[in-house]
Amino acid sequence: MLLNLHVKNLALIEESEVTFGSGLNILSGETGAGKSIIIGSVNLALGGKVSRSMLRENAEFALVELIFSVEHKAQETALRELEVYPEDGEIIMSRKIYASGRSVCRINSETVSQALMRKVASLLIDIHGQHEHESLLAKRNHMKYLDAYAKRELEAPKAELAKEYEYYTAIRKKLEEASLDAEQQAREISFLQYEIEEIENADLRIGEDEELEEDYRRMSHGRKIMESAAECQELCSEGSDNAADQIGRAVRALHAVSQFDESFGAFSEQLEEIESLFSDFNRDLAGYVSELDFSEEAFQRVEERLNLINHLKSKYGKTTEHILKEKQAKEEKLDQLQHYEEYRTELEETLRKTEAALQHCCETVTEIRKKYAKELADQTRQALLELNFLDVQFEMKFGRLDHYTANGLDETRFMISTNPGEPLKPLDAVASGGELSRIMLALKTVLAETDEIETLIFDEIDSGISGRTAQMVAEKIKLTGKNHQIICITHLPQIAAMADHHFLIEKTSSADVTISNIRSLNREESIQELARMLGGVKITDAVLTNAKEMKEMADAVR
To answer: 558 by DSSP, 3-state: which?
Structure first.
């Protein structure tokens, strides 16, 4: 359930916070007051698209923060699979949008990707936008609703179907690529043999390139290294008055007087230790210098070898390991071409088996869909009757594609008849805007009973309806709110009257600034807002009485 929404510096909202309750939460207000900004802010926090124009003028950033309670075990399990862990039963999702266009998403203070935000959101909330009902006109969306309804039984078979389809398309691609005539085949074999031989002749060793690069760096600075090492050796041990001799004399000087003062004994021990370390250093340095041998010939060999390896890298891979792996892949391909007919026969047999497995997956998915399609259609029809459709018929028609897809072979479409005696027709050929709104509401309420999503948001789902139909829609939303949290933006007083929690969105303007605010209404204030929605500019006693009666009637809905 969505507990709290905090918005700052977004569009007309300077800073606003609202605490939602269970049941039906109604958001109302004048046209242009900023109701859609509230829904837009929720979408932003849940990973929606960002535009810099969303920020308030001169604001450095915008912030949207949502607090959800996680009350269902299934929700918590699904969240944990995404490595998102509720803290004290709550999830805090926030998004900070900067003037540069950059945004930062966080879940429980941990920075996450927008993709993860959207995945988490899909488990917690379902948002119906102002024009979403129009998606029903596209038959490609109908299967999405069916698959959502059948999710529990369909999820595993669909995953297996997608896996088999991916394998099937990969085999088909290999078979298409293996369609070579004799001349192409001979040319490809010759080229592969040349490339394999080129790599083999190089006699590469893994890690050799890194070793050669180190040798090259050292040898290219060989003269400088030799000069510096010789100078250091001269100063430390070989020159007149070198450091080793001076330290030795110092040791002897301290040792001569250490018997007269205990402090000198300690100094003498420290200096003797330094002398010993310095002696080891000089010995190691002498060994290094003795092995220094800059050879122009050796340098040339390293350079040539490195050039050869870099040439192979440019053709076959960025490391010696990659080059050797590429050689192995080419050897496998060469073997395939040298045994071309056997290879094609093997691919064809693999494709046949894969297609059979894919066909079986498609049939399994189709069978499950058809079973749940009848359930979904029956429940949707019942919901439509409750939304003032007379003797409505509602079914799902199945067709069959002539090619495989990752979603199977099914082609589905919702069919409806809204008048007695009329044949079933596609939605897009029958339904008006108001009818589409009710059909979408029916689907949403049916689907809400099958998934674990606690919160539903309806942004003006009442589009195109009025009168008795509006009252029945209001009652349906009210009853759905008994088992779910509903957040609904509406212009209809019939729906607003049903509110368990009523919020008013207001816009105020001064000389240089316009601000939208949201506040919770008590019962009397809610009745006043209903009266405004009923009567417009002037609220008469009759309108106010009507608003009170509407609220009392709504209280009686169970």
So the answer is: coil
Helix extents (H) in 100-202: 114-124, 142-149, 151-177, 182-202
Q: How far is CA 182 from CA 189, 194, 340, in A?
A: 11, 19, 10
Pick the closest to residue 3 from 124, 135, 141 (CA basis): 124
pLDDT at 197: 87
pTM: 0.65
Alpha helices in 386-513 (DSSP H): 427-430, 433-448, 467-480, 493-496
**DSSP letter (8 states) at residue 102:** -
- Strands in 110-112's sheet, in edge-to-edge order, are 13-19, 2-10, 61-69, 90-98, 103-107, 110-112
Q: What are phi and psi of 319, to 5 degrees?
A: -140, 165
Segment 178-188, tens digit of pLDDT: 766 667 767 87
Written in H, E and C, the secondary structure of 261-294 is: CHHHHHHHHHHHHHHHHHHHHHHHHHHHHHHCCC
How far apart, in whole angstroms, are the C-alpha atoms of residue 72 and residue 540? 47
Query: Which of 458, 429, 430 is closest to 443 using CA atoms?
Result: 458
In the chain the first and final C-alpha atoms are separated, in Å, by 21
To 10 degrees, the CA torsion angle through 72, 74, 79, 85?
A: 50
How do residues 263-315 score in pLDDT, each as one tens digit? 777 787 888 888 888 888 888 888 877 776 666 777 788 888 889 889 988 98
CB 177 within 8 A of CB 378: no
Beta bridge partners of 489: 27, 459
Identity of residue 249: R
Q: How far apart are CA 547 and CA 496, in angstroms?
A: 10
| CA angle (544 as vertex; 461, 477 as ends), nearest 5 | 25
Output the pLDDT for position 405: 93
Q: What gap in Å lies between CA 450 and CA 483, rounded to an integer?
A: 12
Alpha carbons 206 and 204: distance in angstroms, whole number: 7
Q: How far is CA 126 from CA 50, 152, 389, 419, 550, in A?
A: 19, 18, 25, 31, 29
User: What is the token pair recorded at 505?
Assistant: 């969105």
Question: Which residues, given as ranges, of the chain have pLDDT below 70?
Answer: 52, 129-134, 179-182, 185, 223, 292-295, 431, 433, 452, 511, 536-537, 558
Domain ranges of the chain: 208-318
Q: What is the pLDDT of residue 522?
A: 92
**Residue 448 contacts residue 126 (beta carbons within 8 Å):** yes
CA angle 130, 517, 487 (to 5 degrees): 40
Residue 292 backbone phi and psi in degrees, to 5: -70, 120
- Gyration radius (Cα) of the chain, Å: 39
3-state SS assignment for residue 394: strand
Q: Could you tell me whether strands 90-98 and 13-19 are parallel, antiparallel, or unpaired per DSSP bridges?
A: unpaired
How far is residue 19's CA from residue 192's CA, in Å, rounded to a whole number? 69
